[in-house]
Design brief:
The protein is globular. The strands form three sheets. It has a five-stranded antiparallel beta sheet, with no helix packed on it. A five-stranded antiparallel beta sheet has the order 5-6-7-8-11, covered by helices on one side. It folds into two domains: 53 residues, PAS domain (Beta-Lactamase), CATH 3.30.450.20; 223 residues, Phosphatase 2c, domain 1 (4-Layer Sandwich). It has six helices and 13 strands. Helix 3 crosses helix 4. The chain is of the alpha+beta class and 310 residues long. The protein is 26% helix and 30% strand.
Length: 310
């Protein structure tokens, strides 16, 4: 199985099979968990590469396994610490529901989301995507988490929250790191939302009758430059509507011809899987995105946050 517990015996996720059908060698190790004869779990880093004949045709592949036990143990501890730092206590409200879908590129990821009740009718939220992935990005999300805990109450005015968060990140993180994000406030009584974008992808609003609208806002990513004024936009929803927020790992995926999937492409995949009548199944969505990419694996963390209005 892989780090997320998926079986690697089928064609969808087997590293060796993927490298042969895509004619691509692994650029980073795939972490897999095997079992010894005694039943002990054995983490391994797997590297794969295709084998070609004289004409350049793929005729097989080679797979190299390296012991990953020591590093894996450290990453497992880091994952537990990161998980504890995330504000993932989803609110219980009969008027709407939040559903997160999260699949990190590595054992620890650079995507972050948080939701918090502000009062009986208002909820603040943040979905952020830190540049890169791995340990450095994960540490950045933990700093985001501390800032969220300190400033989430400012989301009554999303533009103010965004400006403060941007300034705080700019003071602490002095290198070229940054985070794209969307944040805002949901009014459950009115089924309305006010949001601010900090360089993130558009939002998808799928109406109860199936019509889809892109909600586009503009703003600089957090942490790039100081003293940024952000603009907020508002929109109304209705019973049965679905709002999808996602990081760019869900849409910035190129196929073999170099064509980017984009927001419309993501919606097309979801519709082919029965959305919005059927709920999103992360495993099926991941398989479809991987198939579109024609790659060994997706190149980024994958996070979606759905709001469903009752």
């Amino acid at each position: 199985v892989d780090k997320d517990g998926r079986s690697l015996c089928g064609e969808e996720f087997c590293p060796l099979y993927r490298c042969m059908v895509t004619d691509k060698a692994s650029s980073a190790p795939v972490i897999v968990i095997g079992h010894t004869k005694t039943g002990e779990r054995k983490p391994m880093a797997v590297y794969v590469a295709p084998i070609h004949d004289d004409s350049g045709r793929v005729i097989g592949g080679i797979e190299t396994f390296l012991d990953f036990s020591e590093t894996f143990s450290d990453l497992e501890r880091a994952k537990r610490i990161q998980t504890l730092s995330l504000d993932h206590n989803l609110p219980q409200d009969s008027r709407f529901s939040f559903s997160p879908f999260y699949l990190p590129y590595d054992m620890i990821g650079g995507d972050y989301f948080a939701i918090r009740r502000l009062d009986d009718d208002h909820y603040g939220f943040l979905l952020a995507d830190v540049m890169g992935h791995g340990v450095a990005a994960a540490l950045y999300t933990m700093h985001l988490s501390s800032l969220w805990s300190r400033y989430y109450h400012l989301l009554r005015q999303p533009a103010e929250f965004a400006s403060v968060l941007n300034g705080e990140l700019g003071m602490v993180v002095k290198d070229e790191s940054f985070a794209t994000a969307v944040c805002g406030i949901l009014n459950a009584a009115e089924r309305s939302m006010r949001i601010v974008s900090a360089g993130g992808p558009p939002l998808l609003l799928v109406r109860a009758d199936g019509r889809a609208e892109q909600i586009t806002a503009h703003g600089l990513p957090f942490g790039m430059i100081d003293n940024v004024d952000y603009d907020e936009i508002g929109f109304s929803c209705a019973a049965g509507d679905r709002l999808l927020m996602f990081t760019d790992g869900a849409v910035e995926i190129c196929n073999a011809d170099g064509r980017m999937l984009g927001t419309e492409g993501l919606l097309g995949i979801l519709r082919s899987q029965g959305y919005p009548e059927k709920q999103i199944v992360l495993k099926r969505l991941h398989e479809a995105l991987l198939k579109y990419s024609n790659g060994m694996r997706l190149d980024d963390d994958l996070t979606l946050l759905e709001v469903r209005f009752s």
